[in-house]
Amino acid sequence: MRPATRPLSISCLMLAYALFAPPAIAFDASVATRLDARGIQYVVDEDGDYKVTYNYSQEGRSQLVFVSGGTESVAGFRVREVFAPAARVAADGINGPVALALLADSSSNKLGAWEIRGDVLYFVIKLPDGIDAAQLEAAMDIAAQTADDKEIEFSGDRDDL
């Protein structure tokens, strides 16, 4: 009877490891190649996104911008997101009328739209993944500037994001 319990114990250990092992970071090295080509400094965060900090030294402000480490497939397109946080929903009073104003603002943008994820308002640009390094940098610049302008609008001098 003893030999039958050994495979069961090994199976239990393997299951426990699978359940409690830290998740693997899935990121696409092609983003690193494009950022490196433009001389952009970044860190890869815990879920595999590329995090870049923009510094607006004249204004004494900074702005975070992320490039998703993975892509999603939509009708044969590989889509990558560039996103920048602009406000905290509860802390900055984003309610129904404000959300409607953000929707109206999104309709005038040629690239990007406002999205709420959890308690954070983001400016998100969804792009075909085949863009080159200069185009990726341009999208990041747009996301950073748009999000920082909205953060100023919501919070005044505060520079949390």
From TrEMBL:
Listed name of the protein: Uncharacterized protein
Keyword terms of this UniProt record: Signal
Taxonomic lineage of the native organism: Bacteria, Pseudomonadati, Pseudomonadota, Gammaproteobacteria, Lysobacterales
Species annotation: Luteimonas aestuarii
Signal peptide: 1-26
